[in-house]
UniProtKB/TrEMBL annotation:
Keyword Chloroplast in annotation: no
InterPro entries in alphabetical order: ABC1_TM_dom, ABC1_TM_sf, ABC_transporter-like_ATP-bd, P-loop_NTPase, Type_1_exporter
Lineage: Bacteria, Pseudomonadati, Pseudomonadota, Alphaproteobacteria, Hyphomicrobiales
Species this chain originates from: Rhizobium mayense
Domain (ABC transporter) ranges: 370-902
Domain ABC transmembrane type-1: 75-326
Protein name stated in the entry: ABC transporter ATP-binding protein
Length: 904
């Protein structure tokens, strides 16, 4: 990277800087005239110079030039104005100059801002670009939070300084020199006084600010280290809690904050000391002007107009001068920060940018062997984890790598996947070093999966298809306004040195996955998810999801058909009792009291059980129907039972997961409430206490909780209250309660609830599993499996994929690798979280699938269980970084060597 920030800025903004400097030079003309005009107004119309006689006039705006050789040119003869109109005319000119100077400043500052933001965009992109080109080993030595902080915060001042780098000294220096020259032209000695003070400020203040720069550098480093430490705490929070080291981390953070405090306090002291001295020097000069200038005026050596003009000119001198000194401090400060950025991002072994060039064209197949020759890999401690290994993987070959953990096979797989760089030897394809091949080839034709998974924040779909997003292949459809906006963004991207790539385009390479477009991609995804045993997980996610009717209209429009198909299937298998359907005139014993009362669902978080119980209309309905005392008594019984059963259990006890109406934190609250209300009746409770008690009944289900609180009479009473509730429901409640309708999709309910339109009978053995199995068959029979799969793939995986289980993350990582249909699939112990039986099942499914596919890739699999080696054509046995045995599993067993020891 360029070491000098000034040279970096000039090389990237040369033409823009020349243009704005030209504008700055032009702005000095009206700036100078604005100094001279007050003198003309005071000496002329105000004091009457040139208007000694009544009715005398003077020429205004006479414009003429004497050009050598060509002679005299008169542009405008001017206007003859009296004393009053000359005052008005000069005042209007002064106003025009004020407006003109303001417009110049407006244009210059706006242009500087745009220039600075464009440069900030450029440098941030270049730094991220360098991060993408760091060698893999470098990421073990840096903290992600520190890198992110540098790119986000530490380069921020560089963008603002870009616009000021050349314009500010030219503009402020030009203004200061203009004012100083004008003062000298009015009176030499006053000019020398001003020049002396300026010289002192220009020399003393920057020297004092060197300490500020050093303190600023220390503040920046400590703040960056704090950011990195906080990032480590977030990433290692599980380890912290598991080892009771929260107070150690608090002490560490407190010590770092104390160091930052002392640095910042010292910085404030120096900052305001410098400011005090600077302000003192700025205020000394007006004192000298008033005293010495006034003395000259009394002696007649300086007229009043000149003195006013000098004072007016000096009034504009400290501002530019102070800003110029501030600019110099900013320049040094930003240069220090830039030097630190350069130091952090100047990394040896940076990947050549040509290797990562955008390539929309499909990558050609790799038809040559993957050859490792004399490969040696050394870890960060200096130990050889792979020692002079030579091996050749033929296209279409199935190779198993076995050995103890750390024996060397994992590092060979990482070298094949370009995740580690060899210290000697090389991996080559057709004689070309793997590290010199473009990523548009290796990243598409070599797939890698391991247990060390990472997923970006987004949906399951975006992460599953991530391995197919190499270049924008289809332009997004825009209307005219959006198209113009995109064109403007592309122009700005080019000016800022960013790539002209539209993120909103379709980046998915459907052809590489074996599909023709988004309409048939699920036909490709399904076999992959089946192979890695993840179809069930995603379909379960779909059933538990709320469905966006606008996005998935193909399914929501057929919800009634799905309900009928499910009912028919249950009848065919004599399983009608598995689901108790919703009927408006009947109480559903498998649903909560609240659901039965509402015959609908609440649109959360707009409405909750507590808010509903406190609503005036609801309370009035309770009073009129007598449900207030009934549900209060039920809630009191629920509270008594829950407190009696669960009060002595720890908060993390699994029983609390089954307690839908109360949390572990609620137990002490209700225990105190019961002690207060015990035996006192409904009228003794306050309105808030009644709400707290009644809301417990809303989540009660008799077959599930079995407290014996629901009588037939109470159920009939609730059904009658339901009809009355919906008969006169107010508008505010109608907006937040979605009523069940057998002929309509319920947006606030899950997909499963919509299809069932009822509740699963809890007393039936394995009822949920049996219903799930039947639902899958119904979806497939109606040709809606892709629609359901699409809903499941909408699931948000969270930060780093942490909303998925470890097993699901490993399956998804392997599925993403398979979806690329690469020529070489490298599996580096990809499924250690699964038991061996499931690993065997997945391995067999994958190997069978690739054998039957048209592209028949080579598979290199580092096995966690050596017994799977019989599934492969060849077995490589590693021990202490060396390849000790190679051959078929049958041949190696006959040798009675290390492979047989691993199996025993």
């Amino acid at each position: 990277m360029e070491k000098s920030l000034a040279r970096y800025i000039w090389s990237n903004t040369r033409l823009e800087q020349i243009w704005i400097l030209t504008i700055v030079a032009a702005s000095m003309i009206p700036y100078f005239l604005s100094f001279d005009l007050p003198k003309q107004i005071v000496n002329g119309p105000i004091q009457g110079k040139g208007f000694e006689h009544p009715g005398q006039t003077q020429t205004f705006m006479h414009i003429a030039f004497d050009v050598p050789v060509l002679g005299h040119f008169e542009v405008f003869q001017g206007l003859q104005l009296t004393r009053f109109w000359m005052l008005i005319a000069l005042s209007l000119v002064f106003l025009a100059l004020v407006v003109l100077n303001g417009l110049f400043k407006f244009y210059i500052n706006t242009y500087k801002g745009r220039l600075g933001e464009r440069m900030l965009r450029r440098i941030r992109f270049e730094l991220v670009d360098r991060v993408l080109r760091f060698p893999p080993a470098h990421f073990k030595r840096v903290k992600p939070a520190e890198i992110a902080t540098m790119i986000k915060d530490e380069v921020e001042p560089m963008g603002g300084f870009t616009g000021d780098a050349y314009v500010t000294p030219a503009l402020l220096g030009g203004q200061a020199i203009t004012a100083l020259v004008f003062i000298i032209m009015q009176n030499f000695w006053l000019g020398m006084i001003a020049a002396s003070i300026v010289a002192v400020q220009a020399v003393v203040i920057p020297r004092m600010r060197k300490r500020l720069l050093e303190l600023g550098r220390q503040r920046q480093l400590t703040a960056r280290e704090l950011s990195g430490r906080v990032g480590e705490i977030v990433e290692g929070i599980g380890t912290i809690h598991a080892n009771d080291t929260t107070n150690l981390e608090r002490a560490d953070i407190a010590a770092r904050l104390g160091l930052i405090f002392s640095i910042r306090y010292d910085l404030y002291q120096w900052k305001f000391l410098v400011k005090f001295i600077n302000n003192f020097l700025a205020q000394v000069t007006p004192f000298l002007f008033y005293s010495i200038g006034g003395f000259f005026a009394l002696q007649g050596r300086l007229d009043i107009g000149q003195l006013v003009a000098v004072i007016n000119a000096y009034k504009d001198l400290p501002g530019p001068l102070k800003e110029l000194i501030d600019w110099d401090q900013s320049r040094q400060d930003v240069q220090v920060k830039y030097n630190q950025v350069v130091e952090q991002f100047s990394v040896d072994g940076l990947i050549d940018s040509k290797i990562q060039v955008v390539s929309p064209a499909p990558a050609g197949r790799i038809t040559h062997a993957l050859v490792a020759t004399n490969l040696t890999v050394v870890d960060d401690s200096g130990a050889r984890v792979l020692d002079h290994v030579s091996v050749e993987i033929q296209p279409g070959e199935k190779v198993a790598i076995v050995g103890d953990s750390g024996a060397g096979g994992e590092y060979l797989a990482e070298a094949f996947g370009r995740l580690v760089w060899p210290d000697s030897g090389r991996v080559a394809i057709d004689g070309r070093d793997l590290l010199e091949l473009p990523e548009s080839l290796t990243g598409r034709r070599i797939a890698y999966a391991s247990s060390d998974t990472f997923f970006f924040h987004g949906t399951l779909r975006s992460n599953l298809l991530y391995g197919l997003k190499h270049a924008p292949l289809k332009t997004a459809d825009y209307d005219d306004a959006a198209a113009n906006e995109i064109k403007w963004q592309m122009v700005e991207a080019r000016r800022a040195g960013n790539p002209e790539l539209d993120l909103n385009s379709d980046w998915v390479d459907y052809a590489a996955a074996g599909a023709t477009g988004p309409h048939d991609i699920y036909s490709v995804i399904r076999p992959v998810l089946d192979a890695v045993a993840m179809s069930q997980d995603i379909l379960d996610m779909a059933l538990r999801s709320n469905v966006d009717a606008a996005t998935h209209d193909d399914l929501t429009s057929r919800i009634v058909e799905l309900r009928h198909a499910l009912r028919l299937r249950l009848q065919e298998e004599n399983l009608d009792g598995l689901v108790v359907p919703f009927e408006f005139n009947t109480y559903n014993p498998q649903a909560t009291v609240g659901e039965n009362l509402l015959f609908g669902t609440l649109k959360r978080p707009l409405m909750t059980n507590r808010k509903l119980a406190a609503h005036p209309y609801f309370q009035r309905l309770f009073t009129e129907t007598g449900l207030d005392t009934d549900l209060y008594d039920m809630g009191l019984e629920i509270a008594e039972n829950a407190v009696e059963l669960f009060t002595d259990l720890p908060p993390d006890h699994p029983f609390f997961q089954q307690l839908t109406f109360m949390t572990a934190e609620d137990i002490p609250t209700y225990e105190a409430l019961l002690q207060k209300l015990n035996g006192k009746g409904f009228d003794a409770a306050t309105p808030d206490e009644r709400v707290s008690i009644i809301r417990l009944s809303f989540s009660y289900i008799e077959p599930r909780h079995r407290f014996g609180l629901l009588t037939q009479m109470l159920m009939e009473k609730i059904v009658k209250a339901r009809a009355k509730f919906h008969e006169h429901i107010p508008a505010d409640l109608a907006r937040v309660i979605e009523r069940y309708d057998p002929e309509r999709f319920t947006a606030s309910a899950t997909l499963m609830d919509n299809v069932l339109f009822g509740r699963i009978a809890h007393q039936q053995a394995d009822a949920p599993e049996r219903i799930h199995s039947i639902l899958y068959d119904v979806f497939e029979r109606l040709g809606m499996q892709d629609s359901v799969l699409s809903i499941g793939l909408d699931f948000d995986v969270g930060s780093g994929g942490k909303r998925l289980t470890n097993v699901q993350r490993q399956k998804l990582s392997l599925g993403r690798a398979l979806l690329k249909r690469a020529d070489y699939i490298i599996c580096n112990r990809p499924l250690p979280a699964l038991d061996h039986r499931v690993q065997d099942q997945i391995a067999r499914a994958i190997l069978t699938g690739v054998d039957n596919s048209e592209y028949a890739p080579a598979v290199v699999w580092v096995l966690s269980n050596p017994s799977f080696a019989e599934l492969f054509d060849r077995v490589l046995v590693f021990d202490r970084g060396s390849l000790v045995e190679s051959g078929t599993s049958t041949d190696l067993l006959e040798k009675n060597g290390m492979f047989k020891e691993l199996l025993s």
